[in-house]
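Try it yourself: sequence plus magnesium ion, in.
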Amino acid sequence: MAFKINLLQLKEHGSVAEIRQDVVNVIGLTNCMNGQMVTIGESSRGVIVGFDADYVLVLLVKQTGAIKPGDKVTTTIDEFQVPVGDAFTGRIINALGEPIDGNGPIKETRRWPIFNIAPTVLERVPLDDVLQTGVKMVDMTLPVGKGQRMLILGDRMTGKTSVGLDAMINQKNEGVICIYSCIGKSEAALNKVIEVFNTHNIWEYGIIVAATAADPMGQQYLSPYVAASVGEYFTHEKNMDVLLVFDDFTKHAWAYRQISLLLERAPGRDAYPGDIFYIHSQLVERAGKMKEERGGGSMTHLPIVETLEGDFAGYIPSNIISMTDGQIYLNASLFGEGFKPAIDMGLSVSRIGSKVQWPAMKKQSSMLKMDYIRHKELEKMTRIKAGVSEAVEERLQKGRCLEELLKQNENEPVPLQEQVMILHALEKGFLQGTAPRDVSRKLSAFVAQVKNRRPEIVQSLIDTKTMTEEIKEALDEQLSQFSDTAV
Ligand SMILES: Nc1ncnc2c1ncn2[C@@H]1O[C@H](COP(=O)(O)OP(=O)(O)O)[C@@H](O)[C@H]1O
Ligand SMILES: [Mg+2]
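Structure, out:
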């Protein structure tokens, strides 16, 4: 007679030998493996993070009561999984997949391993579709493809979180599930994000996975994995597009460093453990676009990294720069000058390039980056010289208008079709002779006029993504009819 073992029900028991802050040394577990979940005592939870000569090392994830030597430790022989499902949209969960928003239990569809292996290259396809962030400078010059990993980096208070949130606001009606992974941020910072979720009702298609600085180190370490798992359910099971913002990996690296020091692992560069590169690459590897046979879903990652005084060559920033497909660098001095979003075009790049861009946008924006960078150079050169010639002054003025065109308030993403209209107007000399302070108002008025008088043209632009003759003619006509008195 066949003898069937149900591994999921196979349990093993051990006991606590020693406790050092967030790490518990356990004896008596002989069949366990890394990444496995254990229950300590009544209901405290931990995850196995390593072994030494005598002990199994368990990182505390949730402590529900005092833990003392001799307490029973139970493990089921299976990897660490969290509940996932459709009902998670609109909710805030912790690193164990438990609701923490006070809105009651969440119906789980299934369980998902938190250290899931990323899909192989053979299961993926090259990126060909754009993820519209609504941040003009990103969509115009640093396009993000669905399935791309795009790093957002910069000093504190330079608008990093805002870029991530703008991209989420812009997914309304786009059918993209948005997940915000809060890692080691302050309670206040998390509340600000929740506020944006409330105001713009991101909850309809959004989820927050939160581990704040006040949560156990174990949760701060695990929370991005859990966020990725919650997302993978939508990407792989529902074949949907997912946008995942990790805010931020610097704090994640700190949490991991602290844990490693507690585990007495040999510290490496900057006291980070040697496998910190692996830790982060394993996470961002989970982004990608699946091929049709695998459902065609995608997961886009926007990891955030905080730099110290602009030092993007530091250990953690340079690691993550090397494992992503581009970076959006936010510059504190640009921010200080009032150029917001403070994206430094010279230091930002998207390695996916214009491949994913709308044809209409590709043509329009190809010169933009060069024009802008040339303007910044000219500005730098003329700053030291007093009087400049009339021709140079005219060029400067034009550059300033371009800067104004690129500026944007936070929480006000601009749809791609409107960006195309703006660029078309720019190309046709719409801003000639306009004072920089009038640029934003004038452009909004033009966009409003087109939307108002030719809504079918706007729709046609969305549908074709191309600057057809018909659209071009209609836009030109609207430009010629535009009168400043209407502003
Ligand atoms: N485009 C913008 N326009 C105006 N203010 C902005 C813009 N982006 C961000 N801010 C403001 O700048 C501050 C820092 O933004 P935040 O996104 O929290 O930065 P970081 O995440 O880099 O610390 C916030 O007060 C935010 O409201
Ligand atoms: Mg932030």
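One thing you can check immediately is this: Residues 364-486 form a domain with the Lysin fold (CATH 1.20.150.20).
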